[in-house]
Request: fold
Amino acid sequence: MGILGGCAHHNASVASPASTDPWSQAELIRQQVRVPEFPDRTFDIRTYGAQAKAGHDNTQAIAAAILACHNAGGGKVLVTGGRYLSGPVHLRSNVNLHIDESATIAFITDPKAYLPAVFTRWEGMEIMGYSPLVYAYGQTNIAVTGKGTLDGQGNRTTWWPWKGSNFSSVDWGIPGVPTQEAARNKLMQDMENNVPVARRNYADGSYLRPTFVQPYSCKNVLIENITITNAPFWLLNPVLCENVTIDGVKLVSHGPNSDGCDPESCKNVVIKNCLFDTGDDCIAIKSGRNADGRRINIPSENILISDCQMRSGHGGVVIGSEISGGVRNVFVENCVMSSPELERGIRIKTNSIRGGVIENFYIRNITIGEVQTAIVIDFHYEEGDAGKFTPTVRNIHISNLKCETAHKVFQVRGYKRSPIQSLHLIDCDFKKVDAIGVLEELDNFVASNVKIQGIEFKA
Reply:
Protein backbone atom coordinates (compact mmCIF):
# COMPACT_ATOMS: atom_id res chain seq x y z
CA MET A 1 0.00 0.00 0.00
CA GLY A 2 2.92 2.35 0.58
CA ILE A 3 3.06 5.35 2.86
CA LEU A 4 -0.14 6.78 1.38
CA GLY A 5 -2.11 3.59 1.90
CA GLY A 6 -3.17 3.24 -1.73
CA CYS A 7 -5.44 6.26 -2.39
CA ALA A 8 -8.15 4.06 -3.94
CA HIS A 9 -11.07 5.78 -5.71
CA HIS A 10 -8.81 8.70 -6.43
CA ASN A 11 -9.89 11.49 -8.77
CA ALA A 12 -8.20 14.86 -8.90
CA SER A 13 -10.96 16.80 -10.62
CA VAL A 14 -12.39 19.83 -8.85
CA ALA A 15 -15.80 19.41 -7.24
CA SER A 16 -18.50 22.04 -7.30
CA PRO A 17 -18.53 23.80 -3.94
CA ALA A 18 -21.72 23.84 -1.89
CA SER A 19 -22.16 27.49 -2.90
CA THR A 20 -20.15 30.07 -4.79
CA ASP A 21 -18.80 31.39 -1.48
CA PRO A 22 -19.53 29.04 1.41
CA TRP A 23 -17.95 31.46 3.88
CA SER A 24 -20.78 33.89 3.21
CA GLN A 25 -22.95 31.35 5.04
CA ALA A 26 -20.57 31.52 7.99
CA GLU A 27 -21.05 35.27 8.07
CA LEU A 28 -24.80 34.77 7.99
CA ILE A 29 -24.58 32.45 11.01
CA ARG A 30 -22.49 35.07 12.81
CA GLN A 31 -25.12 37.74 12.16
CA GLN A 32 -28.16 35.61 12.90
CA VAL A 33 -27.06 34.12 16.21
CA ARG A 34 -27.96 36.84 18.70
CA VAL A 35 -27.27 36.68 22.40
CA PRO A 36 -30.29 36.84 24.70
CA GLU A 37 -31.00 40.07 26.54
CA PHE A 38 -32.24 40.28 30.10
CA PRO A 39 -34.13 42.89 32.13
CA ASP A 40 -32.09 45.07 34.48
CA ARG A 41 -33.03 43.29 37.68
CA THR A 42 -30.66 41.55 40.09
CA PHE A 43 -31.45 38.72 42.47
CA ASP A 44 -28.53 38.10 44.84
CA ILE A 45 -28.51 34.49 46.01
CA ARG A 46 -27.48 35.69 49.49
CA THR A 47 -30.87 37.36 49.79
CA TYR A 48 -32.38 33.89 49.53
CA GLY A 49 -30.18 32.32 52.18
CA ALA A 50 -27.00 31.41 50.32
CA GLN A 51 -23.81 31.34 52.38
CA ALA A 52 -20.26 31.04 51.11
CA LYS A 53 -19.02 28.75 53.82
CA ALA A 54 -17.70 25.21 53.80
CA GLY A 55 -20.32 22.51 54.10
CA HIS A 56 -23.33 24.80 53.63
CA ASP A 57 -25.69 23.44 50.95
CA ASN A 58 -26.92 26.33 48.80
CA THR A 59 -29.04 24.29 46.38
CA GLN A 60 -32.38 25.60 47.64
CA ALA A 61 -31.20 29.21 47.96
CA ILE A 62 -29.97 29.29 44.36
CA ALA A 63 -33.20 27.64 43.17
CA ALA A 64 -35.27 30.22 45.06
CA ALA A 65 -33.34 33.11 43.49
CA ILE A 66 -33.78 31.61 40.01
CA LEU A 67 -37.51 31.12 40.56
CA ALA A 68 -37.97 34.66 41.86
CA CYS A 69 -36.06 36.06 38.88
CA HIS A 70 -38.10 33.97 36.43
CA ASN A 71 -41.43 34.91 38.06
CA ALA A 72 -40.52 38.61 37.94
CA GLY A 73 -40.04 38.37 34.17
CA GLY A 74 -36.33 37.75 34.14
CA GLY A 75 -33.02 39.34 35.05
CA LYS A 76 -29.72 38.41 36.65
CA VAL A 77 -29.21 35.91 39.46
CA LEU A 78 -26.00 37.07 41.10
CA VAL A 79 -23.42 34.77 42.65
CA THR A 80 -20.73 36.83 44.35
CA GLY A 81 -18.40 36.89 47.33
CA GLY A 82 -16.99 33.43 47.76
CA ARG A 83 -17.33 29.70 47.16
CA TYR A 84 -20.84 28.29 47.27
CA LEU A 85 -21.51 24.57 47.61
CA SER A 86 -24.54 23.42 45.62
CA GLY A 87 -26.34 20.51 44.07
CA PRO A 88 -27.84 20.79 40.57
CA VAL A 89 -28.78 24.22 39.27
CA HIS A 90 -31.86 24.24 37.02
CA LEU A 91 -32.18 27.36 34.89
CA ARG A 92 -35.49 28.89 33.85
CA SER A 93 -36.48 31.16 31.00
CA ASN A 94 -35.17 34.75 31.02
CA VAL A 95 -32.63 34.04 33.75
CA ASN A 96 -28.95 34.97 33.51
CA LEU A 97 -26.94 33.13 36.17
CA HIS A 98 -24.05 35.56 36.67
CA ILE A 99 -21.03 34.35 38.61
CA ASP A 100 -18.67 37.15 39.60
CA GLU A 101 -14.91 36.81 39.27
CA SER A 102 -14.82 36.54 43.07
CA ALA A 103 -17.19 33.59 43.13
CA THR A 104 -17.34 29.84 42.53
CA ILE A 105 -20.17 27.37 42.54
CA ALA A 106 -18.65 24.12 43.78
CA PHE A 107 -20.89 21.14 43.10
CA ILE A 108 -21.67 18.53 45.70
CA THR A 109 -20.02 15.19 44.94
CA ASP A 110 -22.70 12.99 46.53
CA PRO A 111 -24.53 11.45 43.55
CA LYS A 112 -27.81 11.40 45.47
CA ALA A 113 -27.84 15.20 45.27
CA TYR A 114 -28.58 14.82 41.54
CA LEU A 115 -31.86 12.99 42.08
CA PRO A 116 -34.66 12.80 41.14
CA ALA A 117 -33.70 11.66 37.65
CA VAL A 118 -34.27 13.97 34.70
CA PHE A 119 -34.66 13.43 30.97
CA THR A 120 -31.17 13.75 29.55
CA ARG A 121 -28.79 12.43 26.91
CA TRP A 122 -25.76 10.37 27.87
CA GLU A 123 -23.22 9.56 25.16
CA GLY A 124 -25.90 10.40 22.61
CA MET A 125 -28.55 8.10 24.15
CA GLU A 126 -31.75 9.24 25.84
CA ILE A 127 -32.15 8.24 29.47
CA MET A 128 -33.70 9.16 32.77
CA GLY A 129 -30.46 9.88 34.60
CA TYR A 130 -28.72 12.02 37.15
CA SER A 131 -29.42 15.69 36.63
CA PRO A 132 -26.64 17.54 34.85
CA LEU A 133 -24.93 19.90 37.27
CA VAL A 134 -26.37 22.88 35.38
CA TYR A 135 -29.53 21.92 33.49
CA ALA A 136 -32.39 23.54 31.62
CA TYR A 137 -35.16 21.80 29.72
CA GLY A 138 -37.40 23.57 27.20
CA GLN A 139 -36.42 27.08 28.33
CA THR A 140 -35.93 30.28 26.32
CA ASN A 141 -33.41 33.09 26.91
CA ILE A 142 -31.00 31.58 29.42
CA ALA A 143 -27.40 32.38 30.25
CA VAL A 144 -24.47 31.56 32.48
CA THR A 145 -22.10 34.54 32.50
CA GLY A 146 -19.39 36.25 34.53
CA LYS A 147 -15.72 35.60 35.17
CA GLY A 148 -16.34 33.19 38.01
CA THR A 149 -15.97 29.42 38.13
CA LEU A 150 -18.11 26.32 37.98
CA ASP A 151 -16.18 23.57 39.79
CA GLY A 152 -17.54 20.04 39.39
CA GLN A 153 -15.03 18.74 41.95
CA GLY A 154 -14.39 15.62 39.90
CA ASN A 155 -11.08 13.91 40.63
CA ARG A 156 -9.34 10.57 40.94
CA THR A 157 -11.53 9.59 43.88
CA THR A 158 -14.80 11.37 42.97
CA TRP A 159 -16.91 10.70 39.83
CA TRP A 160 -13.95 9.75 37.64
CA PRO A 161 -13.44 6.20 39.00
CA TRP A 162 -16.86 5.25 37.57
CA LYS A 163 -15.19 5.28 34.16
CA GLY A 164 -13.23 2.18 35.12
CA SER A 165 -10.50 0.77 32.91
CA ASN A 166 -12.33 -0.71 29.93
CA PHE A 167 -12.99 2.29 27.71
CA SER A 168 -9.74 4.19 27.77
CA SER A 169 -5.98 3.81 27.72
CA VAL A 170 -6.01 5.29 31.24
CA ASP A 171 -7.15 3.14 34.14
CA TRP A 172 -9.43 5.42 36.14
CA GLY A 173 -10.84 2.62 38.27
CA ILE A 174 -10.38 2.04 41.97
CA PRO A 175 -10.57 -1.54 43.28
CA GLY A 176 -13.97 -2.13 44.85
CA VAL A 177 -15.57 0.96 43.31
CA PRO A 178 -18.34 0.10 40.80
CA THR A 179 -18.04 1.32 37.21
CA GLN A 180 -20.32 2.28 34.35
CA GLU A 181 -19.64 -0.83 32.26
CA ALA A 182 -22.71 -2.96 33.08
CA ALA A 183 -25.17 -0.06 32.83
CA ARG A 184 -23.60 1.25 29.65
CA ASN A 185 -23.89 -2.17 28.00
CA LYS A 186 -27.52 -2.53 29.13
CA LEU A 187 -28.34 0.99 27.89
CA MET A 188 -26.93 0.11 24.47
CA GLN A 189 -29.29 -2.87 24.36
CA ASP A 190 -32.26 -0.81 25.57
CA MET A 191 -31.60 1.70 22.82
CA GLU A 192 -31.32 -0.93 20.08
CA ASN A 193 -34.51 -2.60 21.39
CA ASN A 194 -36.31 0.76 21.35
CA VAL A 195 -37.19 0.56 25.05
CA PRO A 196 -39.25 3.70 25.88
CA VAL A 197 -37.11 6.37 27.50
CA ALA A 198 -39.41 6.54 30.52
CA ARG A 199 -38.31 2.98 31.29
CA ARG A 200 -34.60 3.67 30.79
CA ASN A 201 -33.82 4.40 34.42
CA TYR A 202 -30.09 5.01 34.66
CA ALA A 203 -29.63 7.24 37.68
CA ASP A 204 -28.88 5.83 41.12
CA GLY A 205 -26.94 2.57 40.92
CA SER A 206 -25.95 2.86 37.25
CA TYR A 207 -22.74 4.87 37.66
CA LEU A 208 -23.24 6.99 34.54
CA ARG A 209 -21.55 10.29 35.33
CA PRO A 210 -23.68 13.41 34.74
CA THR A 211 -22.92 16.02 32.11
CA PHE A 212 -21.78 19.34 33.60
CA VAL A 213 -23.80 21.97 31.66
CA GLN A 214 -26.68 20.71 29.51
CA PRO A 215 -29.38 22.99 28.11
CA TYR A 216 -31.86 20.62 26.47
CA SER A 217 -34.43 21.76 23.87
CA CYS A 218 -33.72 25.40 24.66
CA LYS A 219 -33.67 28.53 22.50
CA ASN A 220 -31.39 31.54 22.86
CA VAL A 221 -28.60 30.25 25.08
CA LEU A 222 -25.48 32.17 26.18
CA ILE A 223 -22.48 30.79 28.06
CA GLU A 224 -19.94 33.59 28.46
CA ASN A 225 -16.58 34.19 30.17
CA ILE A 226 -16.89 31.60 32.92
CA THR A 227 -14.36 28.90 33.79
CA ILE A 228 -15.64 25.31 33.91
CA THR A 229 -13.35 22.82 35.59
CA ASN A 230 -13.12 19.34 37.16
CA ALA A 231 -16.11 17.96 35.27
CA PRO A 232 -17.60 14.55 36.08
CA PHE A 233 -18.10 13.95 32.33
CA TRP A 234 -18.66 16.23 29.27
CA LEU A 235 -18.37 19.93 30.13
CA LEU A 236 -20.75 21.82 27.79
CA ASN A 237 -23.41 19.77 25.99
CA PRO A 238 -26.28 21.75 24.47
CA VAL A 239 -28.81 19.24 23.06
CA LEU A 240 -31.54 20.04 20.51
CA CYS A 241 -30.95 23.74 21.10
CA GLU A 242 -31.24 26.64 18.70
CA ASN A 243 -29.38 29.94 18.73
CA VAL A 244 -26.47 29.15 21.06
CA THR A 245 -23.46 31.36 21.84
CA ILE A 246 -20.39 30.08 23.71
CA ASP A 247 -18.03 33.05 24.13
CA GLY A 248 -14.80 33.49 26.08
CA VAL A 249 -15.26 30.36 28.17
CA LYS A 250 -12.31 28.53 29.73
CA LEU A 251 -12.82 24.78 29.76
CA VAL A 252 -10.19 23.04 31.87
CA SER A 253 -10.72 19.44 32.95
CA HIS A 254 -8.54 16.37 32.58
CA GLY A 255 -10.80 13.58 33.70
CA PRO A 256 -12.19 10.75 31.55
CA ASN A 257 -14.50 11.95 28.76
CA SER A 258 -13.79 15.59 29.63
CA ASP A 259 -15.00 16.86 26.25
CA GLY A 260 -14.95 20.64 26.24
CA CYS A 261 -17.99 21.60 24.16
CA ASP A 262 -20.29 19.09 22.44
CA PRO A 263 -23.19 20.69 20.55
CA GLU A 264 -25.57 17.82 19.87
CA SER A 265 -28.41 18.05 17.31
CA CYS A 266 -28.21 21.84 17.60
CA LYS A 267 -28.90 24.54 15.01
CA ASN A 268 -27.21 27.94 14.74
CA VAL A 269 -24.30 27.80 17.16
CA VAL A 270 -21.35 30.18 17.60
CA ILE A 271 -18.32 29.09 19.64
CA LYS A 272 -15.69 31.83 19.88
CA ASN A 273 -12.76 33.11 21.94
CA CYS A 274 -12.66 29.98 24.11
CA LEU A 275 -9.76 28.12 25.72
CA PHE A 276 -9.83 24.32 25.76
CA ASP A 277 -7.49 22.24 27.92
CA THR A 278 -9.28 18.94 28.26
CA GLY A 279 -8.95 15.21 28.83
CA ASP A 280 -10.92 14.36 25.69
CA ASP A 281 -12.05 16.22 22.54
CA CYS A 282 -11.90 20.00 22.80
CA ILE A 283 -14.95 20.49 20.56
CA ALA A 284 -16.96 17.48 19.35
CA ILE A 285 -20.05 18.07 17.24
CA LYS A 286 -22.61 15.30 17.68
CA SER A 287 -26.16 14.27 16.74
CA GLY A 288 -27.11 11.18 18.75
CA ARG A 289 -25.86 7.62 18.82
CA ASN A 290 -27.01 4.72 16.65
CA ALA A 291 -30.73 3.86 16.99
CA ASP A 292 -31.51 6.96 19.08
CA GLY A 293 -29.74 9.26 16.67
CA ARG A 294 -31.59 7.76 13.72
CA ARG A 295 -34.96 7.80 15.51
CA ILE A 296 -34.70 11.46 16.48
CA ASN A 297 -32.95 12.24 13.19
CA ILE A 298 -32.00 15.86 13.86
CA PRO A 299 -28.57 16.95 12.62
CA SER A 300 -26.23 19.51 14.07
CA GLU A 301 -26.08 22.34 11.55
CA ASN A 302 -24.92 25.89 11.00
CA ILE A 303 -22.05 25.97 13.48
CA LEU A 304 -19.31 28.61 13.48
CA ILE A 305 -16.13 28.11 15.53
CA SER A 306 -13.66 30.99 15.60
CA ASP A 307 -10.67 32.37 17.50
CA CYS A 308 -10.35 29.50 19.93
CA GLN A 309 -7.27 27.99 21.53
CA MET A 310 -6.90 24.23 21.97
CA ARG A 311 -4.25 22.67 24.21
CA SER A 312 -4.51 19.11 25.49
CA GLY A 313 -7.25 16.90 24.10
CA HIS A 314 -8.00 13.87 21.99
CA GLY A 315 -8.92 16.22 19.14
CA GLY A 316 -9.06 19.95 18.45
CA VAL A 317 -12.21 20.29 16.34
CA VAL A 318 -14.01 16.97 15.98
CA ILE A 319 -17.17 15.69 14.35
CA GLY A 320 -18.45 12.47 15.94
CA SER A 321 -18.54 9.88 17.08
CA GLU A 322 -22.21 9.99 18.17
CA ILE A 323 -23.17 11.25 14.75
CA SER A 324 -26.10 9.13 13.54
CA GLY A 325 -28.34 12.16 12.97
CA GLY A 326 -25.78 13.81 10.70
CA VAL A 327 -23.90 17.12 10.63
CA ARG A 328 -23.81 19.86 8.03
CA ASN A 329 -22.50 23.36 7.54
CA VAL A 330 -19.66 23.63 10.05
CA PHE A 331 -17.16 26.49 9.75
CA VAL A 332 -13.89 26.74 11.68
CA GLU A 333 -11.53 29.69 11.41
CA ASN A 334 -8.65 31.45 13.15
CA CYS A 335 -7.95 28.80 15.78
CA VAL A 336 -4.63 27.86 17.39
CA MET A 337 -3.90 24.31 18.53
CA SER A 338 -0.81 22.95 20.23
CA SER A 339 0.23 20.47 22.89
CA PRO A 340 2.30 17.30 23.15
CA GLU A 341 -0.96 15.79 24.46
CA LEU A 342 -3.04 17.02 21.50
CA GLU A 343 -3.70 13.79 19.65
CA ARG A 344 -5.47 15.12 16.52
CA GLY A 345 -6.09 18.54 15.00
CA ILE A 346 -9.12 18.20 12.70
CA ARG A 347 -11.03 14.92 13.11
CA ILE A 348 -14.12 13.14 11.80
CA LYS A 349 -14.89 9.80 13.48
CA THR A 350 -17.65 7.39 12.55
CA ASN A 351 -18.29 3.82 11.38
CA SER A 352 -21.03 1.67 9.89
CA ILE A 353 -22.75 1.27 13.25
CA ARG A 354 -22.90 5.05 13.80
CA GLY A 355 -23.52 6.01 10.16
CA GLY A 356 -24.71 9.54 9.42
CA VAL A 357 -24.19 12.08 6.66
CA ILE A 358 -21.42 14.60 7.37
CA GLU A 359 -21.16 17.36 4.78
CA ASN A 360 -19.98 20.91 4.21
CA PHE A 361 -17.11 21.22 6.69
CA TYR A 362 -15.00 24.30 6.03
CA ILE A 363 -11.76 25.07 7.86
CA ARG A 364 -9.42 28.00 7.30
CA ASN A 365 -6.59 29.90 8.99
CA ILE A 366 -5.61 27.23 11.51
CA THR A 367 -2.24 27.18 13.27
CA ILE A 368 -1.10 23.90 14.80
CA GLY A 369 2.09 23.91 16.84
CA GLU A 370 2.47 20.32 17.99
CA VAL A 371 0.07 17.47 17.28
CA GLN A 372 0.24 13.71 16.88
CA THR A 373 -1.91 13.50 13.71
CA ALA A 374 -3.02 16.67 11.93
CA ILE A 375 -6.02 15.52 9.85
CA VAL A 376 -8.14 12.47 10.66
CA ILE A 377 -11.24 11.25 8.80
CA ASP A 378 -11.79 7.66 9.85
CA PHE A 379 -14.68 5.30 9.09
CA HIS A 380 -12.99 2.60 11.18
CA TYR A 381 -13.51 4.24 14.59
CA GLU A 382 -14.09 1.84 17.53
CA GLU A 383 -16.38 -0.95 16.22
CA GLY A 384 -15.22 -0.32 12.64
CA ASP A 385 -17.12 -1.66 9.64
CA ALA A 386 -19.44 -3.91 11.62
CA GLY A 387 -22.89 -2.49 10.89
CA LYS A 388 -25.34 -1.70 8.11
CA PHE A 389 -25.40 2.09 8.33
CA THR A 390 -22.72 3.18 5.92
CA PRO A 391 -21.55 6.73 6.68
CA THR A 392 -21.24 9.47 4.08
CA VAL A 393 -18.62 12.19 4.35
CA ARG A 394 -18.43 14.84 1.65
CA ASN A 395 -17.32 18.34 0.87
CA ILE A 396 -14.47 18.96 3.34
CA HIS A 397 -12.39 22.06 2.54
CA ILE A 398 -9.25 22.93 4.51
CA SER A 399 -7.29 26.06 3.58
CA ASN A 400 -4.35 27.88 5.09
CA LEU A 401 -3.60 25.30 7.76
CA LYS A 402 -0.04 25.64 9.11
CA CYS A 403 1.40 22.82 11.19
CA GLU A 404 4.84 23.00 12.79
CA THR A 405 5.26 19.44 14.09
CA ALA A 406 3.23 16.26 13.59
CA HIS A 407 3.96 12.56 13.88
CA LYS A 408 1.58 12.02 10.95
CA VAL A 409 -0.17 14.36 8.55
CA PHE A 410 -3.10 12.09 7.60
CA GLN A 411 -5.20 9.30 9.00
CA VAL A 412 -7.90 9.36 6.30
CA ARG A 413 -9.79 6.10 5.62
CA GLY A 414 -13.17 5.73 3.95
CA TYR A 415 -14.85 2.58 2.69
CA LYS A 416 -14.56 1.23 -0.83
CA ARG A 417 -18.37 1.38 -1.12
CA SER A 418 -18.45 4.87 0.41
CA PRO A 419 -15.27 6.81 -0.30
CA ILE A 420 -14.65 10.16 1.36
CA GLN A 421 -15.90 12.64 -1.23
CA SER A 422 -14.32 15.97 -2.13
CA LEU A 423 -11.60 16.45 0.47
CA HIS A 424 -9.81 19.61 -0.65
CA LEU A 425 -6.61 20.98 0.91
CA ILE A 426 -5.47 24.39 -0.29
CA ASP A 427 -2.42 26.42 0.84
CA CYS A 428 -1.45 24.09 3.69
CA ASP A 429 2.04 23.63 5.14
CA PHE A 430 3.19 20.74 7.33
CA LYS A 431 6.74 21.65 8.29
CA LYS A 432 8.14 18.77 10.34
CA VAL A 433 6.54 15.33 10.16
CA ASP A 434 7.61 11.76 10.86
CA ALA A 435 5.26 10.28 8.22
CA ILE A 436 2.67 11.38 5.70
CA GLY A 437 0.33 8.73 7.04
CA VAL A 438 -2.66 7.03 5.44
CA LEU A 439 -5.00 8.11 2.64
CA GLU A 440 -7.44 5.36 1.69
CA GLU A 441 -10.70 5.32 -0.27
CA LEU A 442 -11.18 8.90 -1.44
CA ASP A 443 -13.06 10.31 -4.40
CA ASN A 444 -12.08 13.74 -5.71
CA PHE A 445 -9.15 14.41 -3.38
CA VAL A 446 -7.53 17.75 -4.21
CA ALA A 447 -4.26 19.13 -2.82
CA SER A 448 -3.29 22.56 -4.13
CA ASN A 449 -0.15 24.30 -2.86
CA VAL A 450 0.27 21.78 -0.05
CA LYS A 451 3.77 21.36 1.33
CA ILE A 452 5.07 18.56 3.54
CA GLN A 453 8.56 19.17 4.90
CA GLY A 454 9.09 21.84 2.26
CA ILE A 455 8.20 19.57 -0.65
CA GLU A 456 5.02 20.11 -2.64
CA PHE A 457 2.58 17.29 -2.05
CA LYS A 458 0.74 16.05 -5.14
CA ALA A 459 -2.65 14.39 -4.76
Q: What stands out?
A: The CA atoms of residues 45 and 62 lie 6 Å apart.
